[in-house]
Design brief:
Length: 450
């Protein structure tokens, strides 16, 4: 433990010295690593990484006065103070969207978007199965059926080739999920939507500032939803936003999120449309407004560190970095790669993950095949769903989960690090690479360890 600590301290203080640089370069050489790999921590060796990782969420004392200003003003509600509209303007500008709406959460951003795009009881929405469960729930909230396109295990996002076979006369929308902030193949998805006259609602809840072919995620379909929940890159405890290139659609979202009050192009001043209360508070908007520069700077750091990890991890047999669409920049809410035990003498993924955690590198296998977990059975066995679909359709729907071979593979082979790990310095990224090389070099021994 001590060795590694002093080694990192050494890098920081003596990086300018040629001796240190020579040592660092030698340390980065792939073959040197394999030959000299120390014992894995799980076999009694020294953990590669010491001292924890960036804590999340973060607070800056200089934000305090602005937050107090909001509370002292006693204008806390969306319609009484200026911060929510200021945030909406700034968020739209930063993303290059025509307009944005602040809302209560990522989940509500998706519910509102689906409602506004006309997704109604008995409709079907084609969606990515590889996502946080809130994506499924937003569709179920509209009493619609989440129909799963398969996941491309190479990209972890919706495989556009599997969309058209899922379209029925009830399909109303496609909902691509930019999972971990990795943009979906939006050109292909939009082309299918156009051909079949379907709406596109992007789940960009993990994709703040992510880019696809020079445009930001959340501006590529009809409407895009974001989350600002506490774990997110720009958090306000809870919170969300919807963006669009259509002012009219955002006005409709605004009306629905504000108890049905008319807005913009929706003429009149009263309640004239169905609506719910999904408003953001002024204090949440103020907290978000202060994190714009931080988000921009940290996005660049995460991207640089992720690029470095992908370039180096891709050289290790058994590790495959995720394939990204051409000319895209992910936001990396999680950094994910695929693990193939064959490259590690058959070491099962859970043992690999345990060995990596023992090196001081927290990791997870984020999503299961959650369509088998009971949530969808509960929905399709409910009175409402039985009324809305035939028994044959619901049976075929349930059976179709077994066809999601790509998603099964994605769930079974992915390993990921959370975004805060990518905010560390380059030497910490090298430690991650070193840890994985070390585990691989000793994988035969690790296989034998109970
Ligand atoms: C992909 C995805 N969709 C939707 C959501 C829902 O966002 P929220 O938790 O803000 O409701 C999240 C949040 O974790 C998410 O990651």
């Amino acid at each position: 433990m001590k060795n590694s600590l002093s080694r990192r301290g050494f890098i920081r203080t003596a990086a300018a010295s040629s001796a240190a640089l020579a040592w660092l370069n030698a340390r980065r050489g792939p073959n040197v690593f394999a030959a000299n790999a120390g014992k894995p921590a799980l076999l009694g060796g020294t953990p590669v990484h010491q001292g924890g990782w960036t804590a999340w969420p973060q607070w800056r004392e200089e934000w305090g006065e602005k937050m107090l200003e909001v509370y002292r003003s006693r204008k806390w509600f969306r319609l009484s103070g200026p911060q929510v509209p200021e945030f909406e303007k700034a968020w739209a500008e930063m993303l290059g969207a025509k307009k944005a709406l602040a809302v209560a959460s990522g989940t509500t951003s998706l519910i509102i978007s689906l409602h506004v795009m006309g997704v109604d009881a008995g409709d079907e929405v084609i969606v990515s199965p590889y996502t946080f469960i809130a994506t499924y729930n937003a569709i179920l909230n509209r009493k619609a059926l989440p129909v799963f396109a398969d996941t491309d295990p190479a990209t972890l996002t919706m495989d556009p080739k599997t969309i058209e076979s899922r379209i029925t006369s009830r399909t109303r929308a496609i909902m691509p999920v930019h999972i971990y902030g990795m943009p979906c193949e939006m050109d292909a998805i939009n082309a299918i939507a156009k051909k079949h006259k379907l709406a596109v609602v992007e789940d960009a809840c993990q994709a703040w500032l992510a880019e696809y072919k020079g445009r930001k995620c959340g501006t590529l379909g009809d409407l895009g939803g974001f989350s600002f929940q506490e774990s997110k890159h720009i958090p306000s405890g809870e919170g969300g936003a919807i963006t669009s290139m259509s002012e009219d659609l955002i006005d409709r979202c605004n009306a629905f999120h504000n108890c049905g009050r008319s807005c913009g192009n929706f003429k009149g001043t009263g309640f004239f449309t169905r609506g719910e209360n999904y408003r953001m508070t002024q204090a949440q908007a103020m907290l978000l407004l202060q994190q714009f520069n931080k988000l921009k700077k940290e996005t660049v750091i995460r991207q640089a560190n992720a690029d470095h990890l992908s370039a180096q991890l891709g050289k290790i047999p058994g590790i495959t970095p995720v394939r990204l669409p051409e000319n895209s920049r992910p936001s990396w809410h999680l950094y994910a790669f695929r693990y193939d035990a064959a490259g590690f003498n058959g070491l099962p993924r859970d043992k690999f993950m345990k060995a990596l955690a023992a090196e001081g590198i927290p990791n997870s296998s984020p999503y299961r095949e959650q369509y088998f977990d009971g949530l969808l059975d509960e929905a399709i066995n409910s009175r409402g769903y039985k009324r809305l679909w035939s028994a044959e359709r619901l049976k075929a729907y349930r059976d179709s989960f077994n066809d999601l071979k790509g998603n099964k593979q994605a769930c079974e082979t992915t390993v990921a690090f959370t975004q805060n790990i990518l905010l560390s310095d380059r030497s910490a990224m090298d430690e991650i690479i070193e840890a994985i090389r070390k585990i691989q070099a000793h994988s035969a021994e690790l296989v034998k360890k109970a």
